[in-house]
Amino acid sequence: MGNAQNTKPSNKLSLTSPALPRGSDVWANASPSGLSAAKLPFGGKSSNCIGSKVSSGSAGSSVRPEPGGESCANLIVELREARVSKGWSRKVMAKHVGVSPQTITRLEKGVGTVSTLVAVMDSTNFMLTGLSAGKTLFEKLRNTRIKHGKSLENLVRRTGLSHTAILDLENGAGSVEDLLRLLAALAPRARRQAPARAYWALGQKEDRDSRFTPPDFMDNIYKAFGEIDLDPCAHELSPVLARRKILASRGGDGLSQTWSGRLAFVNPPYSCALQWLRRAHEQWSAGHVATVVCLVPVRTDSAFFHEVLSLDADIFFLKGRVKFLKPDGAAQQTPFSLMVLTLGANAEQRARFAQLAAGFWSRRRQPNDTDL
Known about the structure:
Layout lengths: L25 H4 L23 E5 L2 E5 L4 H17 L4 H8 L3 H7 L6 H10 L4 E2 L7 H11 L4 H8 L3 H8 L5 H11 L4 E2 L22 H11 L2 E7 L7 E6 L13 E6 L6 H13 L3 E9 L5 H10 L1 E5 L4 E3 L5 E3 L4 E6 L3 H10 L2 E3 L11
Parallel strand pairs: 5-6, 7-8
Antiparallel strand pairs: 1-2, 3-4, 8-12, 9-12, 9-13, 10-11
Helix pairs in contact: 3-4, 10-13
């Protein structure tokens, strides 16, 4: 947001379930001959996307519901659009996810594993709602099945999947096709969770990531933490003073280039703040930079925040709202609360900042802390 336009304003993904009559069950109510008209999760109607299969069991033959042509196509199209909206090539996406470009190409043709799908979903920062609580998608699937009293045998009959296929999905394996089948039977209303607002008014959507940290706020950063060696998400109009700036306008990419120096200041594009926090933690953990100071919205709902940042980061919750600078130089107050998240800051630096800025430092969670 503040100092860069490393990502283009993203079109929101629309992995939503179609509206279904209350209490409807598309698999239970659809006859084998009528499956082509049955609505599936993520939109669309069933057709020969991958093909129907017939499985046999002790209770006789059962028709395996087709995975859904438009449903599969919509999901794949949305994955591709999410990549394109970030300005990423398949090669860049593959680097972020840790797979080969060929794997991304295959996934965008509807061929791939759930593990790759989840990695791509994570890179575009969206989550599904309509499932029971859990740390991972797979844990949520298992907890949803248990919560609703669904036995494996019941899901085998309703989905046409084998026991092994369902257990694979609950343990982080399996195919995209099988995942869609399971969701259709287990959570037909599963949909993408609406992301928390982390941007400016809709009328400013095109330049919502072009807001710059005001000089008076930066003065407090300099006084408390010292001179800045690196701004990894810099912008040519930003007033941030740093020895090294990674500028997207000049082909730089702070999400892939190695960081360096004693102190890095990160005021990222807020439309993808979580990606930058992951990157900051990664570069700090690797020892490429000694201290990282991040100015980001107060977003504490991600698993990464609870499982990693709450243990490793010191967080200062700012009182009031910060007035950022627009590209035309005018000031604009943020429509959301902000926090200063630091990695590697010492006690003296934190004390100095607390004297300069209104707010408070939160207590870092300890590994042996238990939920109340």
